[in-house]
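User: Can you predict the 3D structure for this chain?
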Amino acid sequence: MKLGIAGKAAIVCAASKGLGKGCALALAQEGVAVTISARGEEALAATAEEIRSETGVTVRAVVCDVTTSLGRSEILAACPQPDILINNAGGPPAGDFRDFTMEDWQRAVNANMLSPIEMIKATVDGMLERGFGRIVNITSSSVRSPIDELCLSNGARCGLTGFVAGLSRKTIRRNVTINNLLPGPFDTDRLRGNIAHRAEAAGKEIAEMREISAANNPAGRFGTVEEFGATCAFMCSVHTGYMTGQQIMMDGGAFSGTM
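Assistant: Here is the predicted structure, written as structure tokens:
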């Protein structure tokens, strides 16, 4: 299927590795010029070169922290008129809510709710004027099926979901869609950290907990960044102009609800 987005420009946040990298690579494979950001210079530079070598598209790499106003301004200076925006940021730490301070909650809300809203605010009007825009927020399956030890993430990401639900109905008339992509267990550094946390709490070896976690998923495995990126690219395509405000689950069937 031709996605019809060759020649478009995209911003992909937190894209040096993991799910963000998968999205950036998938978009580049469709001929989209990508501006990628991350805090780690070495990993970001390596990812940028990998994408350039594999796809031949223009890749701009911006070393910054998207959760800060300075970081966001640096990304937008590199790509002031994106057609596609992929909001992404590292999730807050796991733990018991009793152990988190007000500052922990404020950091979580800033990173996983307010910063994506600020990026949308900075880019959506240009998309509306040009008559095309695709915004995908990478959130979490915990928005639909809360995970107890990820209470910081549960709360902050649900806030973003509520915001998007309203705005996305106002932008679709001008061919600007806003949807959320909800990953479950994907084989990323984030997953490995969560498994280590659960292994410690259960008194098990990390390898054993990883095997148990994979086996407990209906798919019998963890997801790959490649399949996540491909789904994200489709959500950014010309074929999704009639889809907005949706929560697209990718969790191997772990969420057993019907809605």
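The radius of gyration is 18 Å. The mean pLDDT is 95.
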